[in-house]
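Dear colleague,

Following up on Tuesday's group meeting, I ran the structure prediction for the two-component complex that the binding team flagged. I've pasted the input sequences exactly as they went in, so you can double-check that nothing got truncated or mislabelled along the way. The structure tokens for the whole assembly follow below. Feel free to forward this to whoever is handling the docking comparison.

Inputs:
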Amino acid sequence: MIVDDLFDLVSYRIHSEPHILVNQDICRECVQRSCTFACPARCYQWNTEKGKVDFTYETCLECGTCLIVCDRGALEWHYPKGGYGVRFRLT
Amino acid sequence: MKSFDAIVVGAGPAGATAALRMAQEGIPVLLLERGDRPGAKNMFGGALVNCSVLDDFFPDFWNQAPWERHLVRRVLTLITPDSSTSLAFETDSFDHPPYNGYTLFRPVFDKWYAEKAVAAGATLLCGCTVEDLLWQGKAVAGVRVGRSEGDIRSRVVVACDGALSFLAEKAGLRKKFSPDQMGLGIKALFRLKEEAINERFNLVRRQGASHEFLGCTEGIRGGGFLYTQTDSISVGLVLHLDSLKKNGKTPYDLFQRFMALDPVHKLLKGAKLVEYSAHLLPEGGYRMVPRLFTDGMLVTGDAAALCYTNGLNLEGMNLAIASGFLAAEAVIGALQKGDFSSRQLSEYEERLRKSFVLKDMKTFEKAVDWMHTDRLFSAYPRLVASIMEQIFASDGKPRRRLGRIGWETIRDTVTLSELVADLIKGGRSFL
């Protein structure tokens, strides 16, 4: 198994508005950047060039890890609108 | 504005149970689910252990519920990078109905279960995320869903909204979570032919096996698991969030290396990866249980952190079902009296305290400290492996007695004070 295969197998119904909002002003000051490694869906990646977090809500598994490991309160976290987001078919 | 006597938020096992029980009594109840069907947001890959509530609802539960395999074989394996030590338990008494535990697919089971609530008279609305609570003074008086004209009134709200329970937080029943209270579960589903699973795991008919692995998380507190379904296998890791955060490794890379370990790899050989998922598990035990009621609202299941592990038992679904049932009973009592104040609803907590739900949570209250012992996840699996290897290795040197091997290996691994501290913690959680 290679890690990329994992992410390719998840199905979603993506809403046009993100359900998590990232406050980049807070992230810029963060040194720990726990979200960039703890998120099991690889939604957060540190962009060294721009000095900010690159965030994709589209591949979120809605587990809430980011919300709990962020101790700076940089995230405004909601569940996606009804019927949207990750859809587990088989599991 | 629409209104119901009761609104149940979340059509998982706690919510479906609560809605079913209330509907049986003829109570107008609305069951809300944010997924496009019950179970769509669930990634459970474990076991439902036998639960008397289900037997009372469905006297032939085992005959009609959509489960996959009944568990007869439980295996605990201590892993090091190059060895493994297993303890396997198997018994005939788990092999006939009513079975002791089942593996199942939640998108299938939850849909079946919610349909039972609907058949009894509950109204199920899917694709409905609850965004806020409605208030009347200090009492919860309904919910706001993300639709136009989305306010729905009720005399009571039963929050079955899962591990992250935003409703419990909005109602002021719990504080913000800290990473040491949560475990991150990640899981992959693999397809494998039914015959291959039977052969590989030593099973016949619909028998199932569960495997737990310790020592496979590279020093992070947590463990691996593997459960057999009919023609698929659920494999995953549970990682304590505080430990993961401190360690800095990524869950999916840990998972990849876990699956490459020989004892795991052999069980998965030729199986096809079909789905990946992740979810949080409340791991704080009894001390994490929030206030369970307020005026006009009750909290159940994962939302109330009713979930525990002591390293051997991993239970949550049965606690969710039982708490959903007892919440419904409390609502029935409140309706009869026409009183939904917290004083009346406190009956729910009393019932939980008398049932196995809070009794089990309390029994294993101290197991949380044991499960937060770092050495349990690396040093001790290595210790066991080293002792086993010295017992069996034949290298021409004279053999030593087991006691001597054990003592010397323990001395090389931990200090006496560490050992004593860990024994006390282990003793407190089990004895």
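The two ends of chain B are 55 Å apart (CA to CA).

Cheers,
M.
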